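User: Predict the structure for this protein chain, please.
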Amino acid sequence: MKVVVVGTGYVGLVTGACLADVGLEVVCVDVNTEKIENLKKGILPIYEPGLEEVVERNFRKERLHFSTDLPSSIKGADVAFIAVGTPPGEDGSADLQYVLAVARSIGENMNDYGVIVTKSTVPVGTAQKVQKAIADALAARGVDIPFDVASNPEFLKEGAAVDDFLKPDRIVVGVGSERAKEIMTRLYKPFTLNGHPVIIMDIPSAEMTKYAANAMLATKISFMNDVANLCEITGADVNMVRKGIGSDPRIGNRFIYPGVGYGGSCFPKDVKALIRTASDMGYAMRILEAVEEVNEDQKMVLVQKVHKHYQGQIAGKTFAVWGLSFKPQTDDMREAPSLVIIEKLLEAGAKVKAYDPVAIKEAQHFLGDRVEYTADEYEALVDADALLLITEWSEFRVPNWKVVHKLLADKVVFDGRNIYDRDELKENGLTYYGIGIA
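Assistant: Here is the predicted structure, written as structure tokens:
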């Protein structure tokens, strides 16, 4: 079975590499020549634990190929995944121009039956647009080549994407024909042999499942952040509340950790897109509208604590920031809370020294040289007044508090992820501020 994956971003590269890892012949295609040449040299465009080894192993065994030539790559392909970006437009809707451009190109070059699969996160109804784009291209050629369109949304967590793909909770596939169902079932047979379920459904349901899943997770995060803010007002401790509700199996203990809001490439974009899709249908997603509003407000909570502690006088102060990426185990800076927090500190006349294990290069695209970047976490504390923990990388979890106390001028720690113990910091002469703790 020959598989083509169009797009070598986060989703496309993980998909192509992992499918090759179970023995399939895979060609990853991208219009970016530099990216393709780098991939052939083993240089990846993203940081994702374990992915480099999978790419290198399968490229060496000639199961994984990289190309800029879609016309030749698509010929003879049994399955073609469309895994290009769907950035949000100004109105929050998903921009499908790249998805449809790939669909047209496939229609212009395919020479035999194949299943064209949308792997990108796309709103309900996209498969119909892809179907039309391919059919129009075939008609323009004056040829009648049968094909099917399918939806196969990804459920990958950045930082654990390889494991998520190879050991999935579930594989959702939306199809419109028995032939497409048979091919997609065969494609994922290596995974079902290990007991991972493939859930076959209609295409609109598959498209909706992806958005609904991310929207639910985003809702849990915003709900818990709302509860955390109320805990501070009432004198409750959100860490205790979280343990109390997380032990209920109907709720569970995942995605109920308070913090400075969610970010990344999925939750913000998908929540906006689902709200927009509903609006286009004349329906208001009132809960999701509140989820989005709470999340935007939550990114300001740590800044507000800083202003309150310093009574609004932070001009000239220097703040050390630990963690820049939107979450640990990734260099992804898209919609990262750190960007909002740092921008607000800079606007108020403060200086920022920042450290992140892998995201500094990406952060520079957003923040430029307005921030001083350091080689390790303790160097960021030198000449700093206070510390802000924004991303909970494991190397930040057990710092040497004596060193922190020695280096910080004002002996203050603002914990944006509630990973530190207030009593322990107090014993070390440090003032502590967390989220949802009075």
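The chain has three domains: 2-201, 211-297, 299-433.
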